[in-house]
Amino acid sequence: MLDAQAVRAAVPMAAAVDAVREAFLDLAAGRFVVPQRLSFGGGTTLVMSACHTPTSTTVVKTLSLVTGRTPTILGTLVWNTAEGQIVADAIEATTLRTGAVSGVATDLLAPPDAHRLALLGTGAQAADQVRAVAAVRPVDRLAVFGRDPSRASAFADRLGREFPAMSVRVAASAADAVSDAEIVCCATSSETPLFAVDALPERVHVNAIGSYLPSMRELPAELLATAGCVVVDQVEAVLEEAGEVIHAVETGLVDRASLVELGDALRTPPEVTGRTVFKSVGLAVQDWAVARLLGGA
């Protein structure tokens, strides 16, 4: 059993970004079998799995998510190969892979010289969003916003110590945080949009990884409707779970056919103009990518 510390020590963020990128390319090439994620108890228990057909390796992960509990996420990740099995704590694996996919999308869609990052949310997923973006872009300015000002301040202090060359400030509001950002990461469980579309600069890339239920909506529908490109981890998954995408499609603001899956976008990079969005609800191929690194592959 690999504990959280062992998982973190074995998988640097830059390696996780590269591994997740490769996994999405394999997904687009049809090299994975990925059953739809199972959700129980209103999303408080999740079960996800993936099989990489060329190697016959599989990953199965179970998660328990309870807002307000410390830690919020508890779970187990199991990596299976013909040679044996690895069991690992799923908390670090989940935050690593969720951060890593934002790193992949940011590397694809954000300007190469983007250096101003806004982070909305200070929970379990937040720090790895910063680590992943910093792995692919020269981030030197970070604005953090959280609903609890004291928690946001403590979180900003920790990130400032981890990234001493980065100027970190606590924003007064979400709109304040994103006002001059070149990259935005949303990592909250909000049921209402975090900001109005006109709070954003005209050229900005937005990652949204917090919402995973139809009732949750981090992004304004107008952003999805007017963005130059909306990339998702998987169309089927976001239309099942991502509240902001479900709402935008059902109201006719966004055409389902305009949603681009990340693997396809990596194979054929889109022309990037204006605002861009990446929406992820999390796929088991990301867990497979991190588990492969834990297995030494």
How are the secondary structure elements laid out?
Elements: H1 4-10, H2 13-28, E1 32-33, E2 38-40, E3 45-52, E4 57-65, E5 73-81, E6 84-89, H3 90-109, E7 116-120, H4 126-136, E8 141-145, H5 149-162, E9 167-170, H6 174-178, E10 183-186, E11 205-208, H7 221-226, E12 229-232, H8 235-241, H9 243-250, E13 260-261, H10 262-267, E14 276-279, H11 284-294
Parallel strand pairs: 7-8, 7-10, 8-9, 10-11, 11-14, 12-13, 12-14
Antiparallel strand pairs: 1-3, 2-3, 3-4, 4-5, 5-6
Helix pairs in contact: 1-3, 2-3, 2-11, 3-4, 3-11, 8-9
Share in β-strands: 15-25%
**Protein structure class:** alpha/beta
From the alpha carbons, calculate the radius of gyration and give it in angstroms: 18 Å
Shape assignment: globular
| Total strand segments | 14
- Helix proportion: 25-40%
| Topology pattern, helix = H, strand = E | HHEEEEEEHEHEHEHEEHEHHEHEH
User: Low-confidence segments, ≥5 residues, pLDDT <50?
Assistant: none
Oligomer: single chain
Write out the strand line-up for the largest beta sheet, numbering strands in chain order.
9-8-7-10-11-14-12-13
**CATH 2nd-level architecture of the largest domain:** 3-Layer(aba) Sandwich
Characterize the largest beta sheet: strand count, sense, and whether it forms a barrel: 8 strands, parallel
Mean pLDDT across residues:
95
Tally of helical segments: 11
Main attributes of the structure:
14 strands, 37% helix, alpha/beta, ornithine cyclodeaminase, domain 1, single chain, Rossmann fold, eight-stranded parallel β-sheet, six-stranded antiparallel β-sheet, 297 residues
